């Protein structure tokens, strides 16, 4: 009890290492082997987050246009995050961008930076993570004031020509405590709301009323980072696709082209770089233009170009695997045939303890905690259900 | 929800109740059962108002013998808030027990300025001019004249009220000032007179402190309240000052000049009357011979202010002969004004008791004490006789008469102080003659005597045991409640050292030290760079604030502050301050951030809330002691020491700390809110200051938040703001709430 009371009062320097003091939670088992702490408890905690995040199956908007507004004003140079807020933000954004494109291959992203009272475009809406990260890294300097209004106005002009089926999102990473605006920001917020832009804010310092207002008005979320790890966590919360907009539920046909990869030796003028390129590239099925990477929009005929792999990877958001149920290890059940088994994924013995026993509600197969995480976060297929289907086929 | 406290069914319009609200109800019920007075402190933001209303109205339902609940507030805004809560409660009660049993009549009463609906008169700007405008249209002789002469203007609303409204009672319900105006417009009745009439029938009356404490007002408004009333003084931490102000008069040169002009005018009117209507003056004389000036059935619209003396001190005898005649009385006044003028013309500070003052007065100017006592009533009678309607023009002579009557009536508890100039600005002659009441218990005594239960409550009444001594009464219940918090949403800190580790203080010998000024500036600068949205700063006085802002400007600190937040400053001008506040709010709303400089004991410190994002941090620069060289304060301290055995230092500290607590309490108005408070003075570290803070601040003031320096405070602030920005867990916040089942369970356990 006393320990618990003390925990939040640790000195600042201590807190940084609190997570690293893993040696203190080591437990020696009867055979002299070291085990890391109370696994089962940690595993439950991890799962609780997952369950909270999943909820009932909903329609999700998998074609997203996300505008990332970064605050590189004077406040971003503060060093309460090490080495500076800006560097920490840049690192977190880099992770975010990669994760975003990994999970939303059909989506696009653009970066806007606010500094010196103005907002400027770093990268236009596009699909290549590396290009964004490169542009961001060459832009790391901070001075002047931040203006949320300018940032939102710029984002607003950005998203205007986005097709109606696309989800317009803005994520603002805000280090400053105040915004220095040329006009009335409340008008801009109204405009953003009318344009169905969902604006979310990630704060670095404290709760700011206007940020809360913006996110509430436009249906976004607002969170303030406690530390570097937390910042990453709340930024990554914006990675999974959001629920589809209620008013956009009417079905509409989206034209998409599935371009073929050009032969290795071919020489063609690239439509996106406007210069002669050799080899690689994809050929638009409608106008035969050559583009360098997917997904993108054909710069000649405007067709959305994707590969089938992208569609497939987005598919799991629409049909997620059900969360597995935890089976409580009950003494009365132990030894019964249905309980004796091992993990269906990795064949590890489940009866020994040390891991939760989780059961897929559809195929009734049991899995260990590690396989559960792997299935839900990477694989997006339940091996048990797949084998059931195979059996049915054969 | 509905629950039972010791046999009393309480109707509470919300689904959950805080623990402290329940405890508050229990204590309040004990006091009501004992038919005694009580003193209860409960922090703001815990729903004090609804708790009070809910218990007392339920008590009324159970005991129909109780007459009224009289709820006194300090401002109109608070009054409306109370009535809104009451309306919600009433709707709930109706739902629970049917509209026939839950029938109540509740209304707010305020001055004509807030209630008048006459198209021209209501447009007047000051209270006095509205009153006078109303009188011009509604005085009995004006209306009598209008019956024959159609050119004379009257007020149609008053006429409508006279015809029908005065007989018909209002339908039951809860009426705010706004509702009264709307109702008045619908019916064509005057809302002010309607409300005054209806307080007799109402179950709940909400009005200003003055209506009970100031004898001038309470004499006409609250005269007919029964003994079986429950009186509540809300936000009563300054009640002693209100009591003192109700019985104090200041006379300056311009008052006396004005009074001379008034007397001159009265003379003219009298001589005019002598020529045209001498009969009327004779009638008045006869009436005075028979009895009191106030006696007789004066018409409702004709009385304006009653005698400034407390009811039991008014002499029940005839007006003395030497002022019965109008011209004699005016001559008497002239001599009095002349005498006061002579007294005012002095180079030294004079301090006198009322006894010696009246003795010298009668020997030097032949103004005897007995006649002095009657001045106010006599003037009143004269103005009525002369059919004067422009009473706002006769304010000065009224002030003089007020002074004379008080001086003539009271022999102790008062002192008369004549100062040739303000201590702080000795080169500007500004003579002032002050009759200052030293004893707060005088004005409130009739209230304690007259009513069955008086409840004094506020968020800051600490140290609570001093109030019974100051007000000289014996409460049956004294209790201070703490707040149950779901998270540590209060963060009080005591900052004793600046960024250079030197002590900071507003102590007299340190306050002009540039090091201290710079340290305060650095503190502000660091804080505006750390805290989002609104920051409020309180200084100990206007002159100190002006001085320190000047120095900050020269040091360039102010410019740096402006890079982070806009700066707004309270001034003594009401309109300017209101404008500044409005812009301050706007700057907080649009995310620019703002800092408000204000003064302890000022208007902002008393009545304006800086809740939510308008006040995330409040900094109290220095300890707001009263100006200790003030003659009035010294006289009062002396009196308190001699009469109530309260030490000077104790009282001064008590007063300073309650002001400081009042200032910092501005930022937190509900449990969902959060805010930081910085007491920036090394003297707060002393246990005798710290322990006088209200319990709910002390309980949050942790050991490691004492004796901080600027950098440590900034660090704590950063951590606190990050922690508070995290979403709160609804599960946890439920744990401080009690549902109906919880209460039933508690009731089942007898030893709770």
Q: Helix segment count of chain B?
A: 32
Structural class label of chain B: alpha/beta
Structural class of chain A: alpha/beta
Sheet bearing the most strands of chain B, described?
A: 8 strands, parallel
Q: How much helix is in the residues of chain B? A: 40-55%
Determine the CATH superfamily of the largest domain in chain A.
von Willebrand factor, type A domain
Fraction of residues in β-strands of chain B: 5-15%
What is the CA-atom radius of gyration of chain A, in angstroms? 25 Å
Number of strands of chain A: 19
| DSSP strand tally of chain B | 23
Question: What is the makeup of the main sheet of chain A?
Answer: 6 strands, mixed
Morphology call of chain A = globular
Shape of chain B: globular
In terms of quaternary structure, what is this?
A: heterodimer
Q: What spatial order of strands do you see in the largest sheet of chain B?
A: 7-6-8-5-9-14-4-15
Poorly predicted regions of chain B are 293-301
The average pLDDT score of chain A comes to: 80
GO molecular function, one term (chain A): zinc ion binding
Domain C2H2-type (chain A): 360-380
InterPro entries (chain A): C1-like_sf, Ssl1-like, TFIIH_C1-like_dom, TFIIH_SSL1/p44, VWF_A, vWFA_dom_sf, Znf_C2H2_type, Znf_RING/FYVE/PHD
Main location (chain A): nucleus
């Amino acid at each position: 009890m006393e320990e618990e009371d003390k925990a939040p009062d640790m000195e600042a320097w201590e807190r940084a290492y609190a997570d690293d003091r893993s040696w203190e939670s080591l437990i020696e088992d009867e055979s002299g082997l070291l085990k890391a702490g109370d696994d089962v408890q940690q595993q439950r905690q991890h799962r609780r987050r997952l369950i909270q995040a999943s909820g009932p199956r909903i329609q999700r908007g998998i074609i997203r246009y996300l505008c990332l507004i970064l605050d590189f004003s004077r406040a971003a140079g503060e060093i309460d995050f090490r080495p500076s807020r800006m560097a920490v933000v840049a690192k977190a954004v880099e992770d975010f961008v990669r994760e975003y494109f990994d999970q939303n291959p059909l989506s696009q992203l653009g970066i806007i930076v606010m500094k010196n009272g103005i907002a400027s475009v770093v990268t236009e809406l596009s699909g290549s993570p590396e290009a964004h990260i490169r542009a961001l890294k060459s832009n790391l300097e901070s001075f002047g004031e931040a203006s949320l209004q300018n940032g939102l106005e710029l984002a607003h002009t950005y998203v205007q020509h986005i097709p109606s089926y696309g989800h317009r999102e803005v994520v603002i990473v805000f280090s400053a405590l105040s915004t220095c605006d040329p006009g009335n920001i409340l008008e801009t917020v109204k405009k953003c709301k009318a344009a169905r832009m969902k604006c979310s804010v990630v704060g670095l310092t404290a709760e700011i009323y206007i940020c809360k207002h913006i996110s509430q008005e436009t249906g976004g979320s607002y969170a303030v980072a406690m530390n570097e790890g937390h910042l990453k966590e709340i930024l990554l919360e914006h990675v999974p696709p959001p629920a589809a907009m209620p008013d956009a539920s009417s079905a509409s046909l989206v034209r998409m082209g599935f371009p073929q990869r050009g032969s290795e030796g071919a020489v063609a003028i690239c439509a996106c770089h406007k210069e002669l390129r050799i080899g690689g590239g994809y050929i638009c099925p409608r106008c035969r233009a050559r583009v360098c990477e997917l997904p993108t929009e054909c710069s000649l005929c405007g067709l959305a170009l994707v590969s089938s792999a992208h569609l497939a990877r987005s598919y799991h958001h629409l049909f997620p695997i059900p969360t597995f149920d935890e089976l409580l290890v009950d003494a009365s059940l132990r030894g019964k045939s249905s309980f004796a088994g091992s993990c269906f994924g990795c064949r590890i013995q489940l009866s020994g303890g040390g891991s939760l026993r989780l059961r897929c509600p559809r195929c009734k197969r049991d899995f260990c905690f590690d396989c559960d995480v792997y299935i839900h976060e990477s694989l997006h297929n339940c091996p048990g259900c797949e084998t059931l289907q195979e059996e049915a086929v054969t | 929800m509905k629950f039972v406290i010791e046999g009393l069914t309480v109707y509470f319009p919300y689904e959950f109740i805080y623990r402290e609200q329940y405890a508050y109800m229990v204590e309040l019920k004990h006091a009501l059962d004992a038919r005694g007075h009580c003193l209860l402190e409960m922090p703001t933001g815990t729903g004090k108002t609804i708790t009070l209303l809910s218990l007392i109205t339920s008590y009324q339902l159970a005991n129909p013998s109780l007459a009224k609940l009289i709820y006194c507030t300090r401002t109109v805004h608070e009054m409306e808030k109370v009535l809104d809560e009451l309306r919600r409660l009433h709707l709930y009660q109706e739902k629970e027990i049917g509209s026939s049993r839950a029938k109540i009549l509740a209304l707010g009463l305020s001055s004509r300025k807030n209630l008048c609906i006459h198209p021209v008169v209501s447009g007047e700007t000051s209270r006095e001019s509205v009153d006078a405008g109303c009188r011009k249209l509604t005085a009995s002789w004006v209306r009598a004249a209008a019956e024959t002469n159609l050119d004379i203007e009257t007020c149609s609303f008053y006429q409508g009220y006279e015809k029908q409204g005065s007989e018909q009672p209002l339908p039951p319900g809860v009426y705010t000032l706004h509702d009264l105006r709307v109702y008045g417009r619908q019916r064509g009745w005057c809302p002010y007179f309607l409300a005054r009439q209806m307080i007799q029938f109402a179950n709940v009356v909400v009005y200003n402190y003055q209506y009970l404490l100031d004898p001038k007002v309470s004499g006409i408004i609250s005269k007919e309240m029964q003994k079986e009333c429950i009186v509540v003084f809300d936000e009563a931490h300054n009640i002693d000052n209100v009591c003192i102000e109700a019985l104090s008069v200041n006379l300056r040169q311009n008052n006396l000049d004005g009074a001379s002009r008034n007397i001159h005018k009265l003379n003219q009117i009298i001589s005019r009357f002598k020529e045209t209507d001498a009969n009327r003056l004779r009638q008045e004389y006869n009436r005075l011979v028979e009895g009191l000036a106030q006696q007789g059935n004066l018409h409702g619209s004709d009385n304006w202010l009653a005698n400034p003396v407390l009811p039991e001190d008014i002499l029940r005898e005839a007006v003395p002969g030497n002022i019965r005649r109008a011209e004699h009385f005016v001559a008497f006044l002239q001599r009095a004004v002349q005498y006061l003028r002579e007294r005012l013309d002095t180079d030294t500070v004079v301090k006198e008791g009322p006894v010696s003052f009246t003795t010298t007065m009668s020997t030097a100017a032949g103004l005897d004490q007995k006649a002095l006592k009657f001045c106010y009533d006599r003037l009143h009678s004269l103005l009525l006789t002369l059919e004067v309607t422009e009473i706002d023009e006769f304010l000065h002579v009224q002030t003089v008469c007020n002074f004379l009557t008080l001086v003539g009536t009271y022999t102790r508890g008062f002192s008369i102080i004549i100062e040739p100039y303000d201590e702080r600005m000795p080169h500007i002659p500004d003579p002032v003659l002050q009759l200052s009441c030293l004893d707060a218990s005088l004005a409130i005594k009739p209230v304690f005597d007259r009513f069955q239960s008086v409840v004094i409550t506020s968020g800051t009444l600490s140290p609570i045991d001093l109030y019974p001594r100051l007000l000289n009464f014996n409460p049956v219940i004294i209790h201070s409640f703490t707040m149950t918090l779901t998270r540590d949403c209060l963060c009080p800190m005591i900052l004793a050292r600046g960024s250079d580790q030197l002590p900071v203080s507003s102590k007299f010998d340190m306050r002009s030290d540039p090091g201290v000024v710079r340290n305060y500036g650095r503190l502000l600068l660091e804080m505006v760079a750390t805290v989002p949205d609104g920051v409020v700063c309180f200084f100990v006085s206007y002159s100190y604030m002006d001085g320190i802002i000047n120095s900050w400007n020269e040091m360039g600190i102010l410019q740096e502050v402006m890079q982070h937040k806009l700066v707004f400053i309270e001034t003594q001008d009401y309109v300017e301050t209101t404008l500044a506040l409005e812009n301050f709010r706007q700057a907080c709303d649009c995310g620019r951030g703002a800092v408000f400089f204000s003064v302890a004991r000022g208007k902002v410190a008393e009545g304006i809330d800086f809740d939510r994002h308008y006040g995330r941090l409040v900094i109290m620069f220095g300890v707001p002691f009263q100006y200790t060289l003030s003659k009035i304060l010294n006289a009062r301290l002396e009196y308190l020491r001699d009469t109530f055995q309260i030490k000077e230092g104790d009282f001064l500290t008590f007063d300073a700390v309650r002001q400081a607590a009042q200032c910092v309490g501005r930022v937190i108005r509900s449990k969902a809110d959060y805010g930081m408070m910085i007491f920036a003075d090394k003297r707060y570290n002393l246990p005798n200051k710290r322990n006088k803070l209200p319990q709910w601040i002390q309980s949050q003031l942790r050991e490691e938040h004492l004796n901080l320096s600027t950098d440590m405070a900034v660090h704590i602030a950063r951590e606190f703001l990050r922690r508070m920005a995290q979403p709160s867990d609804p599960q946890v916040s439920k744990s401080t709430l009690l549902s109906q089942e919880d209460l039933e369970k508690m009731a089942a356990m007898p030893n709770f």
